[in-house]
Design brief:
Strand content: under 5%
Order of helices and strands: HHHHHHHHH
Number of helices: 9
Helix content: over 70%
Shape: globular
Structural class: mainly alpha
Largest sheet: none
Radius of gyration: 19 Å
Length: 253
């Protein structure tokens, strides 16, 4: 176990509790939407069957590893990183429902913390979880109500929009001020970094609109496009496994 990770948890106990409450809240929202979708479509089976739990674990492991390979883009300050860890979460959300997608988002954070610890006292991880859920949750909920390619496209578009809007707002009201305190850096210095990239940056609002929003758009659209291409190929394998599971359940009844 990463000793630095344990020490950070102890030192930031109250914030860790807030993070866990955020996770529980997201899971509950996903559960309610999934129950509504199942009632509407007549879907059978448990939301968290043994097979689904195993698949969530597999997708979480992939997502956690992808989370460790983040990189910066020249359109924003270097402390903003982009990664593709939402890709397995979105695929899991499409295949197994919103609860699975949100759980993958949470478990990838746990895996990443054990592999790489945290450099932001969990502030960055909380932001990644919440912003990621804004993509995965709307997309998977919309898809669950009617599973079609058109619905998947609509879901991805809605998720990308939600992630961009929420991510932009969250950076302005919480993340940037939190990072300023965390790193002992005046907010004006952070704005100056943004001005060096885009001269139209004058305040927090213009900073997040001109620098943060484009990052979220690029990430949301990129992950959505890859998901649409990959899910089509994985879907027969996933459906075959689901068919076997359903057959076994029926045989036991």
């Amino acid at each position: 176990m990463n000793n630095g990770f344990v020490e950070t948890v102890v030192q930031n106990g109250s914030f860790v509790l807030v993070c866990l409450l955020a996770v529980v809240g997201m899971v509950m929202v996903a559960y309610l939407f999934e129950k509504a979708a199942r009632k509407r479509t007549g879907a059978q089976g448990r939301i968290l069957s043994t097979r689904r739990i195993a698949m969530i674990g597999m997708f979480s492991a992939i997502s956690g590893i992808l989370f460790c390979f983040d990189f910066a883009l020249p359109i924003a300050p270097s402390f903003y990183k982009i990664d593709f860890s939402e890709l397995p979460a979105l695929i899991a959300g499409f295949a197994f429902g919103p609860v699975a997608g949100v759980l993958v988002e949470f478990l990838k954070i746990v895996i990443k913390l054990f592999l790489k610890s945290t450099g932001t006292a969990f502030v960055g991880e909380l932001a990644n979880f919440l912003v990621g859920c804004m993509l995965v949750l709307p997309a998977s909920v919309i898809y669950q109500f009617r599973k079609s390619k058109k619905q998947a496209v609509i879901g991805c578009a809605a998720g990308s929009l939600a992630m961009t809007v929420f991510g932009t707002w969250f950076n302005a009201v919480y993340l940037l001020p939190a990072f300023a305190v965390l790193y002992g850096m005046p907010l004006e210095s952070i704005l100056a970094m943004g001005q060096a990239i885009n001269g139209n940056v004058t305040d927090i609002t213009s900073f997040v609109i001109l620098l943060v929003a484009p990052l979220n758009i690029i990430k949301g659209v990129g992950i959505s496009v890859i998901t649409m291409a990959v899910y089509k190929k994985l879907s027969p394998i996933i459906k075959y496994g689901n068919a076997i599971a359903q057959r076994d359940v029926a045989a036991q009844q």
